[in-house]
Amino acid sequence: MSEVKKKVLLVDDDVDLIEQNKMLLESKGYEVVTAENVKDAWDTFQKEKPDAAVLDLIMEEHDSGFVLAHKIKRDAYGKTIPVFLLTSATYVTGMKFGVSSSEEQEWINCDAWFNKPINIDELSNKLEECLEKYGK
Amino acid sequence: MEDTKPKVLIVDDEKGLRIGTQRLLQSENYEVDTADCGMLGIKMGTENDYDLAILDLKMPDIDGISVLKAIKKARPNTVCFIATAYASYDTAIEATKLGAFTYIPKPFTPDELLRNLRAGYERRLLIIEAERLKKEREERLLELAFEKSRLNTIVNSLADGVFVVNKEGELVLYNPAAVKYLELNEIIIGEKILGILPPKISELLKHFLGKEAFENKTNSAEVELKPDRELVVEIKCSPVPHPDGSLAGVVTVIRNITEMKKVEYVKSQFVSMVAHELKTPMAAVLGFLNIILDPSLQITPEQQKDYMSRSKNRLQGLLEMVNDLLDISRMEMKTKSRELKELSVGGIVKSTVDFLELELKKKGVTVTSRYQEDLPLIKADNNEITRLFTNIIGNSIKYNKDKGTINIDVSTSGNFIVTKISDTGIGMKPEDKARLFSEFYRIKNEHTRSISGTGLGLSIVKRIAESYSGKVEVESEYGKGSTFTVYLPYSK
Questions:
Q1: pLDDT in tens, B283-325
Q2: Which of these, A99, A109, B285, B286, could form a disulfide with B311 (CB 3.0-4.6 Å)?
Q3: Chain B residues touching A91 at Cβ < 8 A
Q4: B333, B361, B376 — which closes off a domain?
Q5: Which residues have C-beta within 8 Å of that of residue B392, sequence separation ≥ 6?
Q6: CATH code of the region A7-133
């Protein structure tokens, strides 16, 4: 990790999970900015220009995470940062989540999936790998 | 001839001949009736089904030809003879044209007469047998036609689509439902239809049609005929055998299972939603425990205590949610035993307010109420109605502002007891109002983030009210407060 802390945008509508994940990410040396809903998340994203985004899949609507991920990935700056999705639903309508196949990558606009509660070591390893890939 | 005596009618005005012939025939084992004039001859010959009739041509009242005509008209199977001394070629021809078997010239010898009668009787037996066979055949044809129309009526009245193809894949039989499901405007019996069927169905059919031998099994498949669960059918194809066991064709039954599929979908949606709602608090508790147990994080004892108490809250919430879910499930399955009693809505509202006193005090919320006098009673289960008002009044405390007020008004309107519960709380936006009673729906904004709840309370309220043919209405102004109005029908 470089001297300058990497900034991670953390979005979740569950205050307990935000606090936990913020603490865990900080323990790995990241600076964390948070938001509890899609609107605030977008504002924060534009203002803070984070180096990565970690989004909860299910917020107000069941696909808020998807929508937000898409929006970020379509943004000129957003497409230069890794976006992770978090979920506690491993199956919604029988669908398994993953971004291993190219088909999934095409419509799920994110770099990795993590189940809640997160394993911070796994997540931070992946984050490092992606940050490097994106040249952050 | 041996078993039953042939019945003969003799019509002759000549007494001697009449009696003589009668005696002769009786001795030859015939059963003989006689008539002494044409009129009587017609009467007897048309009223009885004689095997044979011997008619004198010349009689004083009416002639034998008229008697012949009348008898033949009424009894076409009676074999008639014309007996006459005035035989001419013309009369003979006319008589046979009119249906006489033959004519016997007078005078006749006993042998001549008997020979003629025997031949006539044989003819009579043949006619009867032919008649019987004809009738039998007609009956069988009628039965066959009836069988066919019965089958058609049955097949056509089925709600399931049915069609049959022969071994060549040509349409043999179909009903209107099949045409409807397959959206085939014009199908013709005898037409090869595999090409115009949905691919999945023709695949099932081809499986059987390709084989020479009859295979006693049914293949089935679910086919989405219109996308997005608009029309889903179950297809069952069974081979139809010939009597010799070879393949005659295939019968296909199409059943509409759209409703079932829709219910299945809603159910699976609900299950994933429940799974998510249950998993989120568990993930939060697990997350806290991970942090507490991770030595590298080095949290302070105060933090640890905070995380423990927050974990406890999440588990408490989880327990409430499971209880709510079980209640909903019991209500859905109607297994919840209800004790219907005469209840006073006012009384229940009062005791609910008393029960929630601690919560009211904590938030400094005051309650003002007005109860109409002589309120009629409702017939309902005490626990359910208490639950309904606890959920609504509980919400009006939870979502009220500090030191706010709750105004309760219980009165009658029409056949309903109307309970209005207004608060001075955070209110809600119109878009939230629309989804308020859906399971797990919780309004999320800066005011509600610290308020815990299962998202099931109002869904339970709605279910209870509707189960008593009542309803719940809500009016709200964002930032000002909400009014919930509960209508419960009272027993007159």
A1: 899 999 999 999 888 899 999 999 999 999 999 989 988 888 8
A2: B285
A3: 272, 275
A4: B333
A5: B421, B458, B461, B472, B484, B486
A6: 3.40.50.2300
Quick: pLDDT tens for B372-419.
Answer: 988 999 999 998 999 999 999 999 999 999 999 999 999 999 999 999
Write the pLDDT tens digit of every residue in B318-358.
998 888 888 888 877 776 677 888 999 999 999 999 999 99
Cα–Cα distance, B391 to B405 (Å, whole number): 17
Give the number of domains in chain B: 4
- Across the interface, whether the CB atoms of A116 and B268 are under 8 A apart is answered no
> Residue B389 corresponds to which tokens in the numbers above?
């008002």
DSSP B460: H
Q: Please answer yes or no on whether A16 and B449 come within 8 Å at the CB atom.
A: no
CB contact under 8 A, B276 and A89: yes
Q: Is residue B460 domain-shared with residue B348, that is, in the same domain?
A: yes
CA distance A92 to chain B (A): 5
Q: Model-level pTM greater than 0.90?
A: no
Which residues sit opposite A56 in a β-bridge? A86
- A20, A58, A91: residue with CB nearest B288: A20
Q: How far, CA to CA in Å, does A118 sit from each of A55, A123, B450?
A: 12, 7, 23
- Looking at the structure, tell me whether residues B416 and B482 fall in a common domain: yes
